[in-house]
Amino acid sequence: MDNVDLVAVVDVNRKNAEDIAKKFGTKAYLNYKDLFGKVDAVSIVTPTPLHFAVGMDFLENDVDLLLEKPMTTTLEQADELIGLAESKGLIVQVGHLERYNKAIAALENLIKNPMFIESHRLGLYKERGTDVSVVLDLMIHDIDIILNFVKSKIKSIHAAGTPVISKLVDIANARIEFENGCVANITASRISTKSERKIRLFQKDAYVSVDFVKREVNIVKQSGKDHSGLIPGMETRKLFFKQGDALEDELKDFVKSVIKREAPEVSGRVGRDALKVALTIVECIDSRNRRLAS
Question: What is the pTM of this model?
Answer without folding.
Answer: 0.91
